[in-house]
Specification:
This protein has 246 residues and is an alpha/beta fold. It has a single domain (8-241), classed as TIM Barrel (Alpha-Beta Barrel), CATH 3.20.20. Helices cover 42% and strands 17% of the residues. Helix 3 links the parallel strand 3 (59-63) and strand 4 (82-85).
């Protein structure tokens, strides 16, 4: 049974600028995740953002663009604390991600000597220690993934799962309809299964409303992404401009 007392709260970085990282990091988050799936952030920008996040003492995660061994390898060689892999819908796809993260004999990842490995000067430490602490979290974004959730979570080396609410609702033809009974039922099924395992249970709270975060904490989630940089900015602007006198 999972221990839900140690919930960590992070957010998404979608703007490739270290100033954004510094503002977000100083606001009290536990981790920040650089989004390579839905942004224009490139590898060089990602590297600088990882350095900035870790320099602030936070965990740096990266959501890769797809479940692709080449992409995963390049991202991990930059030295993040973990990765989030989108749209993992089966145990076979989860195993593919796992193989891309781990060196032989466990996985099939090729060896590079980049920032993660101390540019070759701390490869053995990375191989024997650091790599064991890198989190691999797979996103549950389709009803088929929930059908296979037990098989996914049974894989040793999968550290947790993470609900992407937009795509999960979209998988049944109702994107963004989070209050729809079918979507609610899918999430309930996810929660029942995920709570059987001592692994991270994640959710992306999109609106910048911390009451929604507290609801998820009370429901057993222990890895929560709270909104994202542009949404915080946009909502603050809109809320203040509502006070404008005409």
């Amino acid at each position: 049974m999972n221990n839900f007392n140690n919930c960590t709260i992070g957010s998404w970085i979608t703007i490739a600028h270290s100033s954004i990282v510094e503002v977000m990091a100083d606001s009290g988050f536990d981790w920040l995740c650089i989004d390579l799936e839905h942004t224009t952030i490139d590898y060089s920008e990602m590297l600088n953002l990882i350095i900035a996040i870790q320099g602030k003492g936070l965990k740096a995660y990266v959501r890769v663009g797809e479940n692709n061994p080449l992409i995963i390898k390049r991202v991990l060689d930059a030295g993040p604390d973990g990765i989030i892999v989108p749209s993992v819908n089966s145990s076979q796809e989860a195993l593919k991600a796992l193989n891309a993260v781990k060196y032989p004999p466990i996985g099939t990842r090729g060896v590079g000597l980049a920032r993660a490995q101390g540019y070759g000067f701390s490869f053995n430490k990375y191989k024997n220690e650091t790599l064991n602490n890198i989190k691999l979290i797979v996103q549950i974004e389709h009803f088929k993934a929930i059908d296979e959730l037990d098989l996914i979570l049974n894989l040793e080396g999968i550290d947790g799962t993470f609900i992407g609410p937009y795509d999960l609702s979209g998988s049944i033809g109702k994107p963004g309809c989070w209050d729809d009974p079918e979507v609610i039922e899918l999430i309930k099924r996810y929660e029942i299964i995920a709570k059987r395992y001592d692994k991270l249970i994640g959710f992306h709270i999109v609106p910048p409303d911390f009451n929604l975060v507290n609801d998820k904490i009370n429901n057993g989630y222990n890895f929560i992404a709270f909104s994202f940089d542009l949404n915080f900015l946009g909502q603050m602007i809109r809320n203040q401009l509502k006070l404008r006198k005409t």
